[in-house]
């Protein structure tokens, strides 16, 4: 599990900061991350409107960016769905 956490943190950091803050994902950074790294887990990963909607649902402080904790919510949701755990 440690390697999985390391991979998630490294993946987040690899995309965050390209457009601004290295601690957050902008809309474009999030789109690139989802379409490159999660195409089989996110429906319509190549649809910018669908990604905008997904990002809005995760952006709890409505600042237009995703911090790691906001992004982590997505990872938890995807893992729960993939593992077929009840919500």
Q: Could you characterize the architecture of this molecule?
A:
- InterPro entries: EF-hand-dom_pair (IPR011992), EF_Hand_1_Ca_BS (IPR018247), EF_hand_dom (IPR002048), S-100_dom (IPR034325), S100/CaBP7/8-like_CS (IPR001751), S100_Ca-bd_sub (IPR013787).
- This is Protein S100.
- It comes from Oreochromis niloticus (Nile tilapia).
- There is one protein chain.
- The chain is mainly alpha-helical and 87 residues long.
- It has a single domain (2-82), classed as EF-hand (Recoverin, domain 1, Orthogonal Bundle), CATH 1.10.238.
- 59% of the residues lie in helices and 5% in strands.
- It contains 4 helices and 2 strands, in the order αβααβα.
- The protein has helices at 2-15, 27-37, 48-58, 68-82, and strands at 24-25, 66-67.
- The chain has a two-stranded antiparallel sheet with strand order 1-2.
- The longest helix has 15 residues, at 68-82.
- It is globular and about 35 Å long.
- 20% of the residues are buried.
- The mean pLDDT is 94.
Question: What topology does this entry show?
Answer:
Layout: H1 2-15, E1 24-25, H2 27-37, H3 48-58, E2 66-67, H4 68-82
Antiparallel strand pairs: 1-2
Q: Brief description of this entry?
A:
It contains 4 helices and 2 strands. The protein has helices at residues 2-15, 27-37, 48-58, 68-82; strands at residues 24-25, 66-67. The longest helix has 15 residues, at 68-82.
């Amino acid at each position: 599990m440690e390697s999985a956490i390391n991979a998630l943190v490294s993946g987040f950091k690899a995309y965050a900061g390209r457009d601004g803050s290295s601690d957050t994902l902008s809309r474009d950074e999030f789109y690139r991350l989802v379409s490159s790294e999660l195409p089989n887990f996110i429906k319509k990963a190549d649809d910018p409107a669908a990604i905008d909607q997904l990002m809005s649902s995760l952006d709890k402080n409505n600042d237009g960016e995703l911090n790691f904790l906001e992004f982590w919510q997505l990872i938890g949701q995807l893992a729960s769905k993939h593992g077929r755990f009840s919500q």
